[in-house]
Write a structure and sequence with these properties.
The complex is a heterodimer of chains A (91) and B (368). Chain A has 91 residues and is of the alpha+beta class. Chain A has one domain: 2-Layer Sandwich (Alpha-Beta Plaits). Chain A has 3 helices and 4 strands, in the order βαββαβα. In chain A, the strands form 2 sheets. Chain A has a two-stranded antiparallel sheet. Chain A has a two-stranded antiparallel sheet with strand order 2-3. The longest helix of chain A has 9 residues. Chain A starts with 13 loop residues before the first strand and ends in a 9-residue tail after the last helix. With 368 residues, chain B is α/β, with parallel strands linked by helices. Chain B has a 5-stranded mixed beta sheet with strand order 3-5-4-6-7, with helices on both faces. In chain B, strands 1-2 form a two-stranded antiparallel sheet. In chain B, α10 packs antiparallel against α11. Chain B is elongated and about 85 Å long. The chains are: A alpha+beta (91), B alpha/beta (368). The interface between A and B is large, with 45 and 59 residues. One iron/sulfur cluster (SF4) binds next to α1 of chain A.
Chain lengths: 91, 368
């Protein structure tokens, strides 16, 4: 099956391996399979597959992952810009 | 974080396109009406905290009709069920607890795949919104799970319970927090309800495939009816504008002037989604622009404009691809793999380009 790919090098995903205990929660929740456990620690795969859903960061009990969660929906972004909510496109 | 109120589709419960507008708006703040339970609750189970409704795992024609209506975009709101605890079969102190949104479609897909099992189903109050969208809004979240467990006194029925959450609720839930606050074990089930039985047989383990969100041809085509219903609204606006223009003496009601736009609309909102992975490039607007360009070329050739009327041909080249690009860009919200950062980046280039192209195109068609 073909894996869809969106723009390169855009994800705000950050992984701090030194905090990771290898509990495996991120592996469980990521819908695009970015994490794997190797040698007792999470390994981050192809970041370009990340959709910034935020599931991994929210479920990491040791704050080893950070991401700015959001929705990749052009319509939603336009509406929020029109309503004056600039925070969404600020970075 | 109010931007999080719009999310792409939730494959585990339904195919619905973008979470918020354009396809659906926030449900009204007035008191939520719930779909009658008579259809799918036959008996009640006696428990230490009182009777718990037992739900059927067979969907009736009425349930299916509701599902079709939702997928056609006809009945998107007011499809909520009462939050609370339900039973499937004869669950006991050691049965699993499945957690669901109170969007009937999510709930229906879950119970349909629990046939033959004895389990509890904890329905959260997500304001009638599906799992994925509700997780994004935070209504399918840690707080609501904890609140609902306290309210239903679930801990008295299943003292050492295991909650099975839909994987796609994870953006809204911190599993370790739920465990800490309730004492329940928390595991994430598979993305698609159809895999639940295999998940249970594997000892609460999901395979890679069960955990991966997909977006294959069928997934994308299921979105087409919703897109179409959405488009009808636009076509209505367009007709009104054409009627006004006619009243002002500009009769554009010629098939010849209308079909190029209809084609561009179909290109951007149906053909691009269908052919998505095969169109070169990554940005959705680019994909739409590319196919729009092919369409514009076809229109110019078939109308013989290419060498006879350069201004009109140029107007088509500017307007039609821009329209297709705009509509294709809006499909980002329905896809399952675009990120906020990515779409923001795409829009920074696409939106000014589309506006410029459209303005030039309109200018040319007026002087043409
Ligand atoms: S959830 Fe956090 S601690 Fe657990 S494996 Fe993933 S990164 Fe490591
Ligand atoms: S943000 Fe979502 S898609 Fe990205 S790595 Fe985390 S779980 Fe996976």
């Amino acid at each position: 099956m073909k894996i869809h790919r969106y723009l390169r090098n855009v994800s705000t995903l950050r992984f701090y391996p030194e905090k990771c205990t290898g509990c495996g929660r991120c592996v469980e929740v990521c819908p695009h399979r970015l994490f794997q456990i190797e040698n007792g620690r999470a390994q981050l795969g192809d970041r370009d597959l990340c959709m910034e859903c935020g599931a991994c960061a929210r479920n990491c009990p040791f704050s080893a992952i950070a991401v700015r969660p959001g929705v990749g929906c052009a319509w939603a972004i336009m509406i929020s810009e029109l309503r004056g909510g600039r925070e969404v496109a600020s970075s | 974080m109010n931007e999080r109120n719009q999310r792409p589709i939730d494959i585990s419960c339904c195919f619905e396109g973008c979470c918020g507008s354009p396809f659906s708006d926030q449900p009204s703040k007035t008191k939520q009406k719930y779909v009658s339970e008579n259809n799918w609750v036959s008996t009640h189970l006696k428990t230490v905290v009182g009777p718990v409704p037992v739900v059927s795992t067979r969907l009736t024609w009425r349930d299916k009709l509701g599902m079709v209506a939702v997928r056609l975009g006809i009945r998107r709101m007011s499809y909520a069920i009462r939050p609370g605890l339900y039973a499937v079969g004869h669950p006991g102190r050691n049965s699993y607890i499945f957690v669901s949104a109170n969007y009937k479609l999510s709930f229906d897909l879950l119970r349909k795949h629990l046939t033959g099992l004895n389990a509890w189903v904890l329905v959260l109050d997500t304001a009638g919104i599906n799992v994925w969208c509700a997780a994004g809004k935070g209504t399918f979240g840690t707080e609501e799970i904890v609140r609902r467990i306290r309210k239903t006194q679930l801990f008295r029925i299943v003292p050492q319970g295991t909650l099975i959450l839909p994987q796609l609720s994870a953006p809204g839930v911190a599993a370790h927090e739920v465990s800490r606050l309730t004492g329940f074990k928390v595991v994430y089930g598979p993305v698609r309800a159809v895999d639940i039985k295999r998940f249970l047989q594997n000892g609460l383990k999901a395979s890679e495939e069960m955990r991966r969100v997909r977006f294959n041809l069928v997934d994308r085509l299921i979105l087409v009816p919703v897109e179409l219903v959405f488009l009808l609204k636009y076509l209505l606006y367009a007709t009104v504008i054409l009627l006004i223009l006619r009243a002002l003496g500009m009769n554009l009601f010629h098939w010849r002037t209308i079909y190029p736009y209809l084609g561009a609309i179909v290109t951007g909102s149906i053909i691009v989604p269908a052919l998505l992975p095969w169109i070169p490039g990554r940005a959705f607007s680019w994909k739409g622009w590319l196919l729009g360009l092919i369409w514009a070329t076809g229109v110019n050739i078939s109308q013989g404009l290419l060498f006879s009327d350069g201004v009109k041909a140029a107007a088509n080249f500017l307007l039609l691809p821009a329209l297709a690009a705009f509509l294709a860009m809006n499909f980002t919200g329905s896809s399952t793999y675009t990120s906020l950062s990515g779409v923001v980046k795409e829009m920074k280039i696409a939106v000014p380009a589309i506006i410029l192209s459209a303005v030039l195109g309109i200018f040319l068609s007026i002087i043409g």
